[in-house]
Amino acid sequence: MRTVNIKSFFRVLLLFVLLDALYCEDNNQIGSKIPNLNIRLLSGGSVNLHDLAEDGPLLIDFWATWCVPCKKLMKFLNQYHLDYKDENFKVLMINTDTPRSISKARSYINAQDYKFYVGLDPNKVISKKLNGMVMPTLILVDKGGEVSWRHQGYITGEEVGINKRIQQILKDNQKTLSEG
Amino acid sequence: MRNIIIFTTILVLSTIRANNLDLNGAINSNFGNSYDFYDFSENILDLNFFYNDLQGWVQYEYSNPPDIGFMKNDIRKFRLEYSTDNFLIKLGDIYEFWGRGLLLNQFDDQVTNFDNGTRGLYFEYNKGPFSFSHLNGNSDIWLMGADLRIPGFNNVHSMSANRFHYDLNSMSIGLTQLRSNENHAKMSGPSALVSHDLRGTYASWSGANADFFLEYVDKVSTEKTTMFGSIPNDTLKRGHGYYQNVNFYLGNWGLSTEYKRYTFDRAHGDLTANDYGNQIEFQQMPTLGKEHNSTLLGRLTHNYNFNDERGGQIELNGSILGLSVSAQYAHLSRNETWQSVSASDWVYEKLDGYLPSSNPSALPYWENYQEISGYAFDDKLYFKIGRGANKEILKTTRYFEGTQQDLTINTFWSYDTTDTILFDQEFQIIDSMEVFDTSYSDPYNVESKLWQQSKAITFPMEVNYIFDNGYTIGIGFQYQERKKVNKSMGNATSFNSADSSWNMYNPEDYNETYSSSTTQLSNQDGSVDTQINRLVYISISKAPKWSFTITHDWTNAFEASAPIDPYYNPLEALVYGDYKYFIGKRNNIDPPSWVQNRWVSAEFAYNITSSQRLTIMYGSMQGGLFCSNGICRLIPPFNDGLKITYSASF
User: Fold this and answer.
1) Which helix (DSSP H) or strand (DSSP E) does residue A6 occupy?
2) A70, B152, B377, B535: which one has the fewest Cβ atoms less than 10 Å from its Cβ?
């Protein structure tokens, strides 16, 4: 009897989840405020997400040293971090390597001379909370902390679309500012 | 009743959603069906929820059958976590990673079917720089046996572990302890009851231009005696492990050095399930080998020995002229050399010092890898070129270096004649005795060695070009030359058990030596000296929607007998331009000889939305060794089949 109940429960749960997924489609968690998580930085110290998104948009990406597409994308994200610095745009790359590979992450970031923020999430607490278990997962957060776009995976050439998203959010912010 | 459950569930979940309880999850569905009955269907649903300080995780699996493991239609994993400023409590399936894993490193890797998690309770208390962690519960760990897909051995641990951790500025130290009572499955017969007691310590420091990490673990295991409860348990094995990682950073360059020395057990050959009391499944330590992304280099992965291995690895990462440069070198070996003093008896001698040995009887392994990658033409062109070299002594069948003396036995008869008078007559009594005169020759040098080694050189390369209209064309090529030989050398050939001596190669001249190398690779035509592997893939993609890849894998030789391609499929015919296939002049189950030793597959990946992805693969894939986290799995070939993967997160 117990088995039947659990099965019934999960059939319903699965149905709910699928409906939820279909209903939300790309919009899941879009528009909601990002949790104010505290993140330890590779360079030392820590930072919280609301502080980072306080004065400008923030692009969060999850990566690991073994993730080849993540590394291919990083070069472009670093470029956007530098290009839109004056408009308070920031990139936060959250590394999900185990403690065993953290030295590799530091070595890699140093070698590439990347300037974006690099957070550490060895126990995958943040990636679970932000649903970033698939790598790369991009989350674009608007000024103030509202999630405006989410995307998983990377196909070469997608950086063009990412850049357009960033430009759009900066343009919208500029427009709001001039109207205000 | 059923309707009530459905209604309640919908109500609860709807209420949860309405109350802004954070909920996220993922679905992973994999389906496979091949010509030679390699079928699987596995579906996993992960669900996470977050409500203030409470969070939960449930994983449900429906697999009938899975790619690897047992069939399941039930909750596979669950965990409930509650955290406050100072406390963290977890209940359910727990995965912890302390230090660098010499004492505790738990993970669930479904590709190798390795899961050493604990179902139990985890408690953590934090106060400023100090933290204390406690874990206890049971672990039901399955290990692979002879079958490539169904696990064969089940070790059950009842464990508890504690950790003290202290952070002081950029330095941290920790003390760890783990105790486990294991019900250990042997190759046959009743399981053994073994208790493991591990104590460890670690320290780390991080500065602007350098950092280091050190960890040491000591282990004692005892076996419960099956006779009379009053007899104390026997100490079964003692061992220890040490690992250090020192890194230096200067400008755009980083130099990483690692050293390990793991001595939990030793054996001349491979350890089996009957060798227990050594490293346990919770101990998943750094391997000190390069984890490659290249398919061909991945197949050459060394089978790391967590019980008996030492060595070092150096890796340099940097950039020149905007290009990424990486170079790596590793040298590992056992902690001792082994001598075969007879046909079956081996004795060991511990290595001096701390460095690995190059002596073949210590089963050394070398690897070095260099890679350069970067962008050109206004970041439109991405390229990567690598070079990897591996050399490994796989096993020694005979290895003796020493002296022996020839035994010479001269025999003769000794006669003792006595004259006796009996009945007035003179008699002679002759006593005879055979005399053995044993003498030894001067000691002379004997060398008799037979070992198996493999050596390979691999060149992986990849080029992608991004067009302005969003299309990308990619070409990858991997080339590998590999030799696997039995090497024998010396002035003696084999051991003669009858008179306990080495048989000399030339009994007339002991100084005459021999040296030979016999290949262990072959194909349909006979022996092959060098195995040549080639892997080519061509991809076209349109961001952000889809990508299509055709992969062609080819080899000219095998270690065992050459496998037979059981089915000639239209993809192979298309790739080879075999028009006869399409006009009905080919027999599908009698492929032409020129398609043997080749595997062709095509994969189409489509992003349905930014969080849903569908992948369809058709064709054949070569099996081989796959390793992750030092755990290796031999993957069987997949012939003329279809694989469909759907993944979504929400």
Assistant:
1) helix A2-24
2) B377
Chain A residue numbers touching B9 (CB-CB < 8 A): 9, 12-13, 16
Query: First vs last Cα of chain B: how many Å apart?
Result: 30
Extents of the domains making up chain B: 537-650
B543-576 pLDDT, tens per residue?
889 999 999 999 999 887 767 777 888 898 888 8
Is the Cβ pair A103, B293 closer than 8 Å? no
Q: What ipTM does this complex have?
A: 0.84
Q: Are residues A47 and A7 in the same domain?
A: no
CA dihedral B417, B421, B425, B430 (to 10 degrees): -20
Q: Could you tell me how far CA B424 lies from the centroid of its own chain?
A: 93
pTM for the whole structure: 0.88
The single-letter DSSP state of residue B342 is S
Q: Does B606 touch chain A (CB under 8 A)?
A: no
CA distance B555 to chain A (A): 26
Which of B291, B607, B612 is the closest to A66 by Cβ? B291
State whether A111 and B253 contact (CB < 8 Å). yes
Q: Is residue A64 helix, strand or coil?
A: coil
Pairwise CB contact (< 8 Å): A100 & B286:
yes
Q: Mark whether A89 and A16 lie in a shared domain.
A: no
Structural domain harbouring A20: 1-26
Q: Tell me the C-alpha distance between B504 and B490, whole Å.
A: 9
